[in-house]
Specification:
Chain lengths: ~400, ~200
C-alpha cells in the first residue's frame, strides 16, 4: 500500500508541475483561451489502426504531431500483435509513461494508451473509451434510426429499427440508457430506452409536440419540450415522465439542457414578437427567465452546458450554422469556433461532438474547443446528426 | 454518490496498474483488457452488448398520454381515422421565412377548410406543420408546431371546434420539394391539411 501511495504522490507531483508549467505558457485572455497552441508530440513506431486511433484521440484533445526535434513529448511504441508504448518528456529528459496491453482489440488497446497519455501529460481523464449516440437518416431526410458508437464513430450500432422519424437522443448520465424522440406511434413522442435489456417506455406522449428530453445530472429528472399547453414550452418532471411542471410560457422554446449542478435549465427561446431567438436559463424548480449573454451572435439555439459548469456551447445561424461557446456566467461574449451545429460536450469539458454539412449530408465531427482542431468521425452512409456524448 | 461510483473503479484500476507496474525502470508490465467489447459510458465500467429497442406497442397507454390536461384535443379521439390527404391538398398554407403568421393572402384557404369541415360533421382534421431546411432541427420542430397551432387558431376563429383538430410538427423532416433553393424552401414552409374520415363501421 505504501508503494501505491508513493506512486500516486509522484504522479500527482509530476501532474502539478506539468500543469503549472503550461499555465505559464498560455495567455489566459479571451482570445487566448480559444487560440491555444496544441501540445507538440512526435509519434513513432505505430502503424495502421493503432496509429490512426492515437492520432485521432490526441488531436481532438489538443495535441499536434510534429518531427521529434520540434516535439515536447516523444511517444514511441509498437503495435505488433499488441500495443505497447512510452512517453518521454524531452524538456525534463525523462520517461513519464510506459505501458503495454493485451486482450480485446488493437483499437481498444490504442484508445486506452491514448487515455493514459492524456492523463500523464494533461492530468485529465481521456475520452478514448467513451460513446456517443446520434440520429442517422439513410435518405438524408425523413425516417432514420438512433445509433450508438465509439466517440470517433467506430463500432456504430443501430439501437432502433422502427423506420420512423427520430430525433434528439440524450444519455442518462452514468447509465446505459437513452431518451429520444420517435414518431413510431404517428406522433413525436419521448421514449426511455434501456440499452442493457432493450426495454422501451413512453415517457411523454401527449397531444402535440413531445421532444427534446434531457436527463438531469443525477438522472432523477428530465427537462423536455411539450406543446400540450398550446405552445411549445420547457417542462420538467421525474425521469419516468410523472409529476410534470411547466417552466416557461413563451411563444416557442426548444432544446433544454441542464447545468451540471442540476440547478438550472438552459434552452433556446423566441422573443415575444417572434422576431428574435435567444438563449435563456430558468431554475429547475421554476422562476424568472434569465437571458444568457449572446451579444453579437445571431439566432442562437441548441445550448449544451459543459460538465465542469464553465461553458455553454450552442449553434448560431447566420446564413449557415456555426458552433459557438460562451462562459456560462456571462462574463464574456460568445466566441464563434467552426462551421456546424448540434454541439454536445465530452466528459472532459474541452471536446465537442457536432455535425456539419458535407454537400447536403450531415457528417459527425469531433472538435477540441481550445485549439479549434477537429476531425470527422468515420461513417460513410446517410446523414448523421444530433450527436449526444455519454457522460 | 454517482461520482464515487464512477471514480472508485478508476482509482482501483489505476492502483492496480501502478501496483503491477511499479517504478522499476525497463520493467513495463502488461495491462490486460477484457475480451468482450466494453460498453463504457462516460467512464462507467458497465460492460455488455447494446440491446436494440424492443417493439413499441402502438396502443401503449401509461403516463403521458392524452391531453395531459392541456387545451389540445385528446389525440386518442383521432385513433384509427382514415387519412384523406387529397381532399384539402389545394389549401396548403404557406408561411414566410421563420414565421408562423397566417398571411392575409392565405385567409381564403382557411375559409375553404372551415367550409369543408362544416359540411361534414363526422370528419376531423390533422394539421401538419413543416419548415424549410434552414434552421436547426429542434428549433424547426418547435416552429412547425407553432405553424400548425397558428392554423388551428385561425380555423377556430373561422368557426371550427378545436376539439376536431389535431396538430403534428415534422420540422424539416418532411419537405415537399427536396431542392436547396428559395423556390423549394417557399413550398416547404407550410401547413398541410389532412381530412380525417371516421373509421369504417363507426
Amino acid at each position: 500500500m505504501k508503494k501505491i501511495f508513493f506512486n500516486f504522490l509522484i504522479i500527482g507531483l509530476v501532474a502539478v508541475a506539468l500543469t503549472s508549467a503550461r499555465a505559464q505558457e498560455i495567455d489566459i485572455t479571451h482570445t487566448g483561451i480559444f487560440g491555444q497552441k496544441p501540445i507538440p508530440v512526435a509519434l513513432s513506431g505505430f502503424t495502421g489502426e493503432a496509429r490512426q486511433v492515437l492520432e485521432f484521440d490526441l488531436y481532438v484533445q489538443g495535441f499536434s504531431f510534429v518531427a521529434p526535434d520540434a516535439a515536447q513529448y516523444l511517444i514511441n511504441g509498437s503495435d505488433a500483435g499488441n500495443v505497447a508504448g512510452s512517453v518521454t518528456d524531452k524538456f525534463a529528459k525523462k520517461m513519464i509513461l510506459s505501458r503495454s496491453y493485451n486482450g480485446a482489440s488493437l483499437r481498444r488497446q490504442a484508445h486506452l494508451f491514448a487515455d493514459e497519455i492524456v492523463q500523464a501529460i494533461q492530468n485529465k481523464k481521456g475520452i478514448g473509451q467513451t460513446k456517443i449516440a446520434f440520429k442517422s437518416q439513410p435518405g438524408g431526410i425523413g425516417a432514420g434510426e438512433i445509433y450508438v458508437a465509439d466517440f470517433d464513430g467506430n463500432a456504430a450500432q443501430a439501437v432502433t429499427t422502427d423506420r420512423a422519424i427520430v430525433a434528439k437522443p440524450a444519455w442518462v448520465p452514468g447509465r446505459l440508457a437513452l431518451f429520444y424522440t420517435s414518431y413510431a406511434r404517428g406522433n413525436p413522442d419521448i421514449f426511455y430506452h434501456s440499452l442493457s435489456n432493450g426495454q422501451r417506455k413512453p415517457v411523454a406522449g401527449y397531444s402535440g409536440l413531445n421532444t427534446g428530453a434531457s436527463a438531469s445530472p443525477d438522472g432523477s429528472k428530465i427537462a423536455l419540450v411539450l406543446s400540450k399547453s398550446g405552445s411549445a414550452n420547457i417542462w420538467v418532471g421525474n425521469a419516468d415522465g410523472s409529476n410534470l411542471k411547466r417552466l416557461t410560457t413563451g411563444i416557442e422554446d426548444s432544446s433544454p439542457c441542464w447545468s451540471p449542478d442540476g440547478q438550472w435549465i438552459c434552452f433556446g427561446m423566441k422573443t415575444k414578437d417572434g422576431e428574435r431567438r435567444r438563449l435563456a436559463k430558468v431554475s429547475a424548480g421554476g422562476g424568472e427567465i434569465r437571458l444568457i449573454n449572446t451579444a453579437g451572435v445571431s439566432n442562437p439555439t441548441e445550448p449544451d452546458w459543459s460538465p465542469d459548469g464553465k461553458w455553454i456551447a450552442f449553434t448560431r445561424q447566420a446564413g449557415d450554422f456555426d458552433i459557438c461557446v460562451v462562459p456560462a456566467d456571462g462574463s464574456l461574449p460568445p466566441t464563434v469556433l467552426v462551421s456546424g451545429q448540434n454541439p454536445s460536450w465530452a466528459p472532459n469539458s474541452r471536446t465537442l461532438v457536432f455535425n456539419h454539412a458535407v454537400g447536403y449530408r450531415q457528417v459527425l465531427s469531433v472538435l477540441d474547443v481550445f485549439t479549434k482542431q477537429y476531425k470527422d468521425c468515420v461513417r460513410a452512409t446517410g446523414s448523421n446528426s444530433q450527436p449526444a456524448w455519454a457522460k | 454518490m454517482k461520482m464515487n461510483q464512477i471514480i472508485f473503479p478508476l482509482v482501483l484500476a489505476l492502483a492496480a496498474t501502478l501496483a503491477t507496474t511499479g517504478c522499476k525502470k525497463g520493467m513495463t508490465k502488461v495491462t490486460p483488457l477484457p475480451g468482450s467489447p466494453q460498453a463504457r459510458v462516460g467512464g462507467d465500467g458497465g460492460a455488455g452488448t447494446l440491446q436494440p429497442g424492443l417493439p413499441i406497442n402502438p396502443d401503449t397507454t401509461g403516463p403521458g398520454t392524452g391531453t395531459g390536461g392541456g387545451p389540445l384535443a385528446n389525440r386518442d379521439e383521432f385513433d384509427g381515422m382514415i387519412k384523406d390527404p387529397a381532399a384539402l391538398a389545394a389549401h396548403t398554407v404557406l408561411f414566410a421565412f421563420d414565421s408562423a403568421v397566417v398571411k392575409k393572402g392565405e385567409q381564403s384557404k382557411i375559409s375553404a377548410v372551415a367550409a369543408a369541415l362544416a359540411s361534414s360533421a363526422s370528419d376531423k382534421l390533422l394539421i401538419e406543420g413543416n419548415c424549410d431546411e434552414r434552421g436547426t432541427e429542434e428549433y424547426n420542430r418547435a416552429l412547425g408546431e407553432r405553424r400548425a397551432l397558428a392554423l388551428r387558431e385561425a380555423l377556430s376563429k373561422a368557426g371550427v371546434s378545436p376539439d376536431r383538430i389535431r396538430t403534428i410538427s415534422y420540422g424539416k423532416d418532411k419537405p415537399v420539394d427536396p431542392g436547396h433553393n428559395e423556390a423549394a424552401w417557399a413550398k416547404n414552409r407550410r401547413g398541410d391539411f389532412i381530412l380525417l374520415h371516421p373509421k369504417t363501421g363507426a
